[in-house]
Amino acid sequence: MVVGEVRVASLVPPAPVDSLTMTLTAPTTSATISPATSPATSTFPASPRIFSGIQPSGAPHVGNDLGAIRNYVALQDSYEAIYCIVDYHALTSTHDPAVLRERTREMATALLALGLDPDRCTVFVQSHRPETTELAWLFTTVTPVAWLQRTPTYKEKRQSQPEDVNHGLLTYPVLQAADIVLYKASLVPVGKDQAAHLELSREIVRAFNGRYGETFPEPKAVFTDAPVVLGTDGVRKMSKSMGNTIEIFAEPDVIRRQVMGMVTDTQRILRADPGRPEVCNVCQLHRFFGDDYAEIWEGEQTARTGCVDTKKLLVQRILDHYAEPRERYRELMADPGRVDRILEEGAERVRPIARATMDEVHAKMGLR
Ligand code: AQP
What we know:
Elements: E1 5-7, E2 49-54, H1 62-75, E3 80-85, H2 87-90, H3 97-113, E4 122-125, H4 131-140, H5 145-149, H6 152-160, H7 167-182, E5 187-189, H8 195-212, E6 220-223, H9 252-260, H10 281-286, H11 293-301, H12 307-321, H13 323-333, H14 336-349, H15 351-365
Parallel strand pairs: 1-6, 2-3, 3-4, 5-6
Helix pairs in contact: 3-13, 4-7, 7-8, 9-12
The protein binds adenosine-5'-tetraphosphate (AQP).
Adenosine-5'-tetraphosphate binds at residues 54-55, 57, 63-64, 67-68, 190-191, 193-194, 228-229, 237-241.
């Protein structure tokens, strides 16, 4: 186990071999996560609190779900869980107000459809609790610029949107740290791509606690057993901006096209060639959509099955797996008032926590 990370229960059978080097690491079998560091002061919550944010940056995909959202769902029963649609973060790349508004509601709807239950967790929109931006500003005063400049995501965004290298991109991880610890959360379900940001959050917290006294818990990442899901290109992380996603709520024809277009084992030229399931992302994804992964593996390795067969099966299984969420998504999208109410109530529910944290921070920093 890596310091600063914990891993949650495997929902799938173990891999037949332990050489899953690309998409997914071998699943763990433990159904529990380690307890967070014991609170150093009475201002920490009595039991670990969960927080995670997700950008309303487009249609949620299988990578978001396998890498993060299913942990959001799993953890809501064991912990006080707070989930947030991070529209302030999305503003670093999305500048059309109508698009942002629509995507924010879509992402909230998607989370609810995938299993977040407002009676068991809190779901709200980041900008509805503006204390987070004040705390982010205060955190900028303990964060060296060099820490931010070396963030991998910042470097990537400088490449992917060279015309729009805005200040928000640089301070993105500071806002993320503020989001998490405003609620004194210590466990953060995320995909592995967020590990560097989480590490930075821990450093920022340490810098703040070092200067002003023990105030915040150091947040730890919680990974699923699919911490990095590769995209349909089989090479890069599944990501909206890479255009290599399998969308959860798209029309079946779109999902079919996305899966059937997946790159498999590039060395398997003929149907009769034995495949290498450990580098075939179609095989890897089967781990999460059926209980016969070992057979899929063997079929591919011995050329008993072809790539087209395995892809067709995957299409069907993805459609079946998400059939109920897709139905709930349609219902909720037809009732936007209900979703808006859930989000408003969520923001109100966490107000006292945010206020209490800010009172403490103001006092410690000499602002009141
Ligand atoms: N491919 C992935 N594998 C595992 N986890 C993933 N996550 C995203 N992609 C993968 C996790 O999903 C949560 C929400 O991610 P986000 O808000 O950072 O969404 P995102 O970055 O917008 O996802 P994309 O598709 O990668 O978007 P772009 O292209 O805009 O950057 C996070 O916990 C993330 O780790």
